[in-house]
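Reagents: none. Just compute today. Ferrous iron transport protein A.
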Amino acid sequence: MNLKDVKPGETVTVTKVNGAGPIRRRIFDMGITPNTEIYVRKVAPLGDPIEITLRGYELSLRKAEAQEIEVK
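Predicted 3D structure written out:
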């Protein structure tokens, strides 16, 4: 399952970060690494962006970025 498929109010754990180059590096720089717990706070009406909470801070991700993050 990808992060973009998670419903608001759910907490998931990152299992793998896909992608290559700058997108993958940007995801890691934001603190999204394997075994990180992510709480999905809100999803915009059209699905983009997704607001999440991790490591004590809030973050908004584009749907394309969330698709690269595998969770369980």
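The chain has a mean pLDDT of 92.
Action item: order primers for follow-up constructs.
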